[in-house]
Amino acid sequence: MESGKVTRIVVIGTGFVGSSYAYALVNQGLGNELILVDINQKKAEGDAMDLNHAVPFGAPMRIWAGDYADCKDADLVVITAGANQRPGETRLDLAGRNAQIFRSIVDQVMESGFNGLFLVATNPVDVLSYATWKFSGLPARRVIGSGTILDTARLRHLLSGAYRVNPQNVHAYIIGEHGDTELPVWSHASIGVRPISEYLKQGIGPSREELDQIFVKVRDAAYHIIERKGATYYAIAMGLARLTRAILNDENSVLTVSTLLSGEYGLEDIYIGVPAVVNRSGVREVVDLNLTEEERKKLHHSAEVLTRVLKNIL
Ligand SMILES: NC(=O)C1=CN([C@@H]2O[C@H](COP(=O)(O)OP(=O)(O)OC[C@H]3O[C@@H](n4cnc5c(N)ncnc54)[C@H](O)[C@@H]3O)[C@@H](O)[C@H]2O)C=CC1
Ligand SMILES: CC(=O)C(=O)O
């Protein structure tokens, strides 16, 4: 058998999100070694067995339930471990509990000799991406949070319905905290090649008020899903797989990830969701948009809220 380059992905936390992401990887043939780690070893073993039985239907992949030593040769360690929100809880309510879990996880990953990229999805994702960067000592470009990729997908889905256009042709972004203070960047939103501001001027498609209602649905989507089925996982799993593809294929794709700002948007020393170019080295650069005054104020408010939480937990 010919031996090619092995790409190893370790998923830490095989709950709803981690196992859905692992399934997305198998389905999309991303990576050729997939290792599942969970404090609940039996769950990781069960998932590995189940996923291995899916491999004959897809691309070859080696999958096993492993431990932190397996991170040594990993290209990507994806953290989806920790508490999720109970109905009525905000993502920020999880900060203290999940930061403690992250201290032990990131320490153990680094002790293995890991030298790849971290991808973080656990909430509050901006806070925990920052914590992972601090705990690991890795360059910030190699610690990426899923940021507002999911919120951006939710916005594209709803705008796709409102304008009756394929979501692939909806270019609109949510930035800021992945949470209650996030904001839509209407000033840079377009449907196909036409800015939304032109549609508004011409009275085509949703009114300003209807766009505001669409944003509220995006912002509150997780609450509505959690109230109905206890957790959200399929969409974030696809989002994480999308990010994985951008990294492994060295795509230089623009995605709204949580990354360290060092002066962009007038902000520093904060992980927050912004459009950034993602490739094999991680975050190549932040796209520093020229926001309106109102958008900038909202982004700064979001950053202030995150900074307050960070000060409490680190
Ligand atoms: N960034 C995003 O857009 C999204 C983030 N999330 C977040 O993802 C996280 C996971 O959510 P779910 O999968 O629904 O939760 P879950 O409870 O189903 O899974 C969490 C898993 O983490 C494991 N775990 C806990 N402590 C651990 C440790 N110290 N080491 C290893 N494994 C450990 C648990 O055994 C469990 O299997 C939550 O924080 C949730 O809020 C969920 C959806 C979207
Ligand atoms: C749970 C969560 O963060 C989400 O679905 O957006």
TrEMBL record:
**Keyword terms of this UniProt record:** Allosteric enzyme, Cytoplasm, NAD, Oxidoreductase, Phosphoprotein
The record's annotation in NCBIfam families points to:
L-LDH-NAD, PRK00066.1, PRK06223.1
Q: Describe the subunit structure.
A: Homotetramer.
Which organism's genome codes for this protein? Answer: Planifilum fimeticola
Q: Which residues carry this modification: Phosphotyrosine?
A: Y223
User: What does the record give as its pathway?
Assistant: Fermentation; pyruvate fermentation to lactate; (S)-lactate from pyruvate: step 1/1
Where are the catalytic residues?
H178
**Location in the cell:** Cytoplasm
Instruction: Summarize where substrate binds, as residue positions.
Output: Q85, R91, N123, P124, V125, D126, D151, T152, A153, R154, T232
Family annotation (PANTHER family):
L-2-HYDROXYCARBOXYLATE DEHYDROGENASE (NAD(P)(+)) (PTHR43128), L-LACTATE DEHYDROGENASE (PTHR43128:SF16)
Q: Which gene encodes it?
A: ldh
Positions of the Lactate/malate dehydrogenase C-terminal domain: 148-312
Instruction: Quote the record's activity regulation.
Output: Allosterically activated by fructose 1,6-bisphosphate (FBP).
For this chain, one GO molecular function annotation is: L-lactate dehydrogenase (NAD+) activity
Q: Which family does it belong to?
A: Belongs to the LDH/MDH superfamily. LDH family.
Where would you say this protein principally sits, based on its record?
A: cytoplasm
GO CC terms in record: cytoplasm
Question: What's the top EC group for this one?
Answer: oxidoreductase
The protein, known as? L-lactate dehydrogenase
Q: Which residues bind beta-D-fructose 1,6-bisphosphate?
A: R156, H171
User: What InterPro entries does the entry give?
Assistant: L-lactate/malate_DH, L-lactate_DH, L-lactate_DH_AS, Lactate/malate_DH_C, Lactate/malate_DH_N, Lactate_DH/Glyco_Ohase_4_C, NAD(P)-bd_dom_sf
Q: Lineage from the top down?
A: Bacteria, Bacillati, Bacillota, Bacilli, Bacillales
Question: Mind telling me which Pfam families this protein's record contains?
Answer: Ldh_1_C, Ldh_1_N
